[in-house]
Design a protein that fits this description.
By secondary structure, the protein is α/β, with parallel strands linked by helices. The protein has a single domain, classed as 3-Layer(aba) Sandwich (Rossmann fold), CATH 3.40.50. The chain is built from 12 helices and 11 strands. The strands form 3 sheets. It has a 7-stranded mixed beta sheet, sandwiched between helices. Strands 1-2 form a two-stranded parallel ribbon. β4, α5 and β5 form a beta-alpha-beta unit.
Amino acid sequence: MSVIDGNSLEGVSTTTLWTLNNRGTEAKRSDGVIRDPWAVALLDAIDFDYAKFGGPNQSHALRAVAFDLETRDYLSTHPKAAVVALAEGLQTSFWRLESAGVADELTWYSVDLPPVVAIREKLLPADDRIVPLAQSALDRSWMDRVDARDGAFITAEGLLMYLDPEDVRSLIADCAARFPGARMMFDSIPPWVSRRTLKGWRLSDRYTAPPMPFAMTADDGLAMAGTGPGAIAGVRSARDVPMPPGRGLFKLAAQPWLDRIGALHRNRPSVTVLDF
C-alpha cells in the first residue's frame, strides 16, 4: 500500500484522521475492543502527525462497534438493503461487515467530500458493491442514486455534530420523506461538549477541534418520534443505543445502573436509531 500525505485533508475532514487514529490504534492492541485490519492499514499508510490529536482512546472504536451491531441486525432481515454511509470519512465498516458475513448482497453508498473519496479510492480496495459519491451529505442529490427497494440503512457516524441544528433536522426529515420504512443511525454529543468546542476545544497545543454546533441528549433523540415539540415528521420510532463496554473506565461507563443517574444520563454522548 502506498503512503500518502494526510495533510491534504482540511477543516472538518481532518477529523476523520482523528477517528482513524483512535480506531486503528485500538485495533492494533491484542486486547483491543475492535478487530479492524483495514483501519490499521490506513493508519500506517497515511503520513500525518497523529500526536496532535492527543493520546488515543477507545471511544471511536466502541462507537464503530455499536454501528456495526445495529447494521448487522438490519442486514439480517434486509440482506439486499442499501447501506448509505453519510460523511463516511475513513471508516472501514464495509470490510468488518463483510468479515461478519452480512455484506454479500448489499449495496454500499459511500458519501463524502472529494478529497476524502480520493484517499479512499487510492488506499482501499475497489468493490462492485461500493458506490462512491463524492459530495456533501447536505447535497440531497445522493438520494437519487440510492436504490432502496430492498430497504435502506442510513448512517451518520461522526457527522451531525458538525452541522447547524436546522440542517440536522431538515436532513433527517428529508431522509424520512424520501425513504419511508428505512432506518437511520447517528451519534450525538451532549450540549456541554458543544459549548466547549464553540469556545475552542484544544486536543493538544497543536490542534483545536472544529466547532460542533449540534448537540442533544439521549432523551432529545427519543423525542424525535411522536407528536411532541422535538418530533420530526416521518420518524415513526426512536431508541437510544447503549455503548458497548470497553476496558477500564469505558467498561464502567457502559454499566446500565450508571445511566440511571440523571446528571450522567443528560451529559453523556448518545447514539440514536430512528425508524421511518
